[in-house]
Every structure is written in structure tokens, then in C-alpha cells.
Amino acid sequence: MVVGLIAALGITFTTALTAVADLTRDRLRRTRALRQRSDVVVIGQSTEAKVIVTSARRTGSRVLHIAEDGDLPLPSWPDLARRRPVVRALQGAGHIIVAGGDEGENALIAQQLLTIHLSERVRPSVLIRSEEMTAALRPPILRGSLPPLENFSPRDNIGQSVVEAVLQVAMTQQSTLRVRIWSADRVTEKWLANAARAQAILGSPPKFELVNRGPFSLTVAVGSDAINLLMTSNDPVVAVADRALLESIPWLQQRLGRSLFVVDPLEAGVGFQIVADGVSRQLGRAFHQAHSALHRRMPPWGTTVNGREEQSSILAAQAMLQTLDKFGLELSRTGTAVVLSEEQEIAIAQAEHDDWLTHRRWQDEAGKSWPAWRRTDGTVSADAVPWNQLTPSAREYLLDLPRKVYPALAAMFGYVIQESIAAENHRSR
Asked: What is the rounded CA–CA span in Å between residue 156 and residue 140?
């Protein structure tokens, strides 16, 4: 009996020591997580949050995951802004992503973030799962500055990725690409419809058009529908499906990048880079595509030297909002597009050129900043001259910005360019 008691006490003591050791290790891990500056802070326990954390770490980013099973437990939302260690981590982050399972709690956490003095370059991204892109994802109005918080939806991101895949194929065609939607959700269909409208605005011939019948040259299909279609047809397909699954099928491997273009729902929906891009980079990618279609053929997004073209496109898209605001215009999800006068077009084109010439800069891999008109090889753009010294073709391209590029970018995201309410009220006095 004594031996049994001693053995029981020994087991209890060992269990207690193990528990203390586990607790100590957990505290040390969390202490180290707080002391290290994090590039990315992800808040939330959802599946989406875990995917974002994993994909961010694959990029080499230092990630702090605030969740029950993360690096730090999530404080109750009213206490978030009062927890000094958490606040310090948030203030030092380059990206903050709120991706909890409950959208109401996500909204409350996001509001708490607005009370913390975050870096000016950080706009927290908040997960929503709205089915309707036009219902909640984009602000009703976009003016010169973007809102302090940004919503993102996996389905919205997938829709934009499908459009980019379609445009990538369209850029290789000599004639207009005829696109059939075999299966897609409403958000993806909305993106494709908006992109088709944007192509029409850029001028003829459009790079692609949506068709319901007749001959077609590309099909958009989702999930099992995509796999079934691939089994019965050799026609080009944009497949919204698991990339690893499709790549594991031997007879599909030779079609990848040729007649099979894959949009992986996880990569495209909640991949870290997609979420971190935000509206300004999304607008920049669209500007990049419009510039390629209208002015000169551009390399695919993410492949240029030092990222100069990407940085230039992002800055141009941001300048678009500021320029429109300067001239009493805004992007709106409702109403009819304004018709600009010739004087307005010239004034906006001049303002765009002046901003590019005097203010915009890009950064090389070493972190050095250069004027936008300086190329990666050190040469200077021939357009780095005042407006009255530009060639006719350069002026025509700049005039095409308010005529075509700005309206096309607005259409791509479901907006039209309108006169702002303040400007309209001032004019009516």
C-alpha cells in the first residue's frame, strides 16, 4: 500500500512537472513572439486565418498569429487596445489582417484597431464573406484617399484572379477572345461582366467578350464542372479548382499554361499576397493591364525588373483617385458616368503628367528611391519634359487616361466616374 501511494505521488508529481514545463515553454514562446518585430499580424481562429498565416510564412515574413491556438491568445475585443504587448506588436507590423470566424466580432476588432496609432502605411484588412461584391466589399464612393479599413472576401479575390487569367490568355490572341462561362458563382460572373465592360471602354477591338452561344475560344469552369469539362474537351479552360489535384493528373500536366489555366481557390482567395495587396495594388494591377492593352505590351504583373512597372502602376492608380478628387470627381457604385469636356480631359491629362514628372518615385531592390521617369537601366524616359514639349503621341496617351483608362478602371471594380456631391452643390449655387 505504501509502495502504491509513493508510486501514485510520483506519477502526480511528474504530471505536475510536465504541466509546468509545458506552461513555461508556452509562455517563453509567446514572450519571444512579442519581442520579435512581426511583418504580419493575423488576428482570428478561422480556417482563412490559418491559410493566411501559412502562406505568409512561406514568403519569409515574420508572422504573429493572435488566436487561441496561435502565438498569442486573442484578448476579448474591448481589451485589445488596452493590452500593451499586443498594441506594440500591432504598431510595429507592416500588415494587419483580421480574419475571425464571426464577422460581427471582426468588425468590432477592426474598430478597436482604429483607436491604436498604427503606421500611416498600414490599413488593416478585414475578412467578410458576403456573397454580393456590390453589397459590402467596395465603399459606395472612392475619393482622393482610401478608407482606413479595408474589407476583403475570398470570393471577390477569386473573381479578380479569374479575370486576370482571362486577360492573360486574351493578350496572346490576335483577335478578340470569346469567353464562355460554363460555371461560376455570382461574384465571379460580376467580375467578368465588369471586366468585359472595361474592355469595351478601352476601345476596339476589345481583348475579350462574353458569349452565351456560338463559337467560343475559352471556357471558365469551377470545381467538379471544370474537371468534367477537361475530361471531355481539349478546348482552353480557366479552371477554378485545386491546383495540386490538377497537377497530379498526368494527362493534364502537358496542358498547364497552354490550354489549362488554374485559379486555386485557396491561393487566389486567401493567399497572403492577395490579401495584403489591398485596393491600391488591385487598382494598380488593373492599371497595368489597361496600360498594356492601350499603350504598349507589358510583361505580366510581378515579373518586371525591380518591380518598377508594378510600383509605377500602383502610384498611377493612387494618383487617379487624387486627380479626380482635385477636379471634383469621384468613383461611385451608382448613377451614370459623367461626360468630360475637352477642357477637363486636357486639364486632367496635364495634372497626371505633372504628378508623374515631379512627385512619383520607385524603389529598387537596395531600397534606393528614383524618379518615375528613370528606367532600371539608368536611362531617362523621353517623356520627362514639360507638357508643352511632349510629342503628339505622348500627349494622346495621356489624354487617353481620362477618356479611357480611368473609366475602364472604374468599370473593372463596379464603379463609374461622377461629379462629387460637394462639387455638384457648389456648381448649383
From this structure: 16
Dmax (CA) of the chain: 103
Backbone dihedral angles phi then psi of residue 209, each to the nearest 5 degrees: -145, 150
**Dist CA 317 CA 287 (whole Å):** 6
Axis crossing angle, helix 272-294 with helix 186-202, rounded to the nearest 10: 30
- List pLDDT tens digits, range 65-119: 999 888 888 776 567 777 788 888 888 898 999 999 888 888 888 888 888 888 7
Which residue in this structure is represented by grid cell 466616374? 417
CA-to-CA separations, 238 to 195, 259, 260, 406, in angstroms, rounded: 15, 8, 6, 27
Residue type at 13 in one-letter notation: F
Interatomic CA distance for residues 68 and 72, integer angstroms: 7
At which residue does the C-alpha cell 494598380 appear? 284
pLDDT tens digit string along 288-314? 877 777 666 667 776 665 678 888 888
- 422 pLDDT more than 80: no
CB atoms within 10 A of CB 256: 13
How far is the C-alpha of 155 from the C-alpha of 136, rounded, in Å? 12
251 dihedral zone (left: phi>0; alpha: psi -120 to 50; beta): alpha
Query: Is this structure's pTM higher than 0.85?
Result: no
Give the three cell numbers for residue 164. 486576370
Report CA-CA distances (Å) from 328 to 103, 201, 352, 419, 422: 35, 22, 15, 6, 8
DSSP β-bridge partners for residue 330: 418
Sort 386 into a burial class: Cβ within 10 Å, 0-12 / 13-18 / 19+: exposed
